[in-house]
Amino acid sequence: MKKITLDCKTCPARRLGVLCAMPAAVADEQSRAKTTNLYKAGQIIFHEGNQPFGVHDVFSGRVKLYKTGRAGKQQIIRLAKDGDLLGYEAILAETPYAVTAEAIEDSRVCFIEKQLFLANLKKDPSTIQNILKKIAGDLGSTEDRVVSVVQKSVNQRLAEVLSFLSGKFGSAKGGPILIELSREDMAELADTTQETAMRVIGEFRKKKLIAVDGRKITLLQPEALLKTANLEY
Fold this sequence. Notes:
It contains eight helices and eleven strands. The chain has helices spanning 24-33, 88-93, 114-123, 125-151, 154-169, 183-189, 194-206, 222-228; strands at 2-4, 35-39, 44-46, 54-60, 63-68, 74-80, 85-86, 100-103, 107-113, 210-213, 216-219. β10 (210-213) and β11 form a beta hairpin. The protein starts with a strand and ends in a 5-residue tail after the last helix.
């Protein structure tokens, strides 16, 4: 974990997340107090069940948040990128972390101590509003995923995952998915086995819905994938 220094006032990632409306004076105070670390791919940022000492703001890179079942099986809850704030739910609820955060690729992540984060919320009501919107959005996504698991086939679920990843991490509409996501991670997102995920990806390739080059996936027919996923477009 390599320590680096970034200025919150000029941080492009801050404008992408819930801290986007933070006043300059608050951002300056946060810059002086926070720490920024470089996590290599596969490194853990925080563990499920640990007590939170602050929040983590992704400056660059990709992070997966997952829970671990009784048999040790991981289940990805969501993926994070530039500007996403991690661990704030545990701080606000005063509970241990509910998930583990792991860097999927080399990532720069800023750490803001609990006391400073809570103090800044009192100074900045706009951030509170943004966090509430974020919580509502995440809850809606979770509800949609539950419905998807219950009511959709694995082909529909995987088409939905690919469409989601393209929208969140794609370079352009139908462009490559810019994330180093393993087939195991892809399977977890689609709530299926790795073998089944590979089979369905192979079917999508044969139908020329996608092109695969290593871990890079390009959506050749994004509208057709949305239709397969039974989503509107």
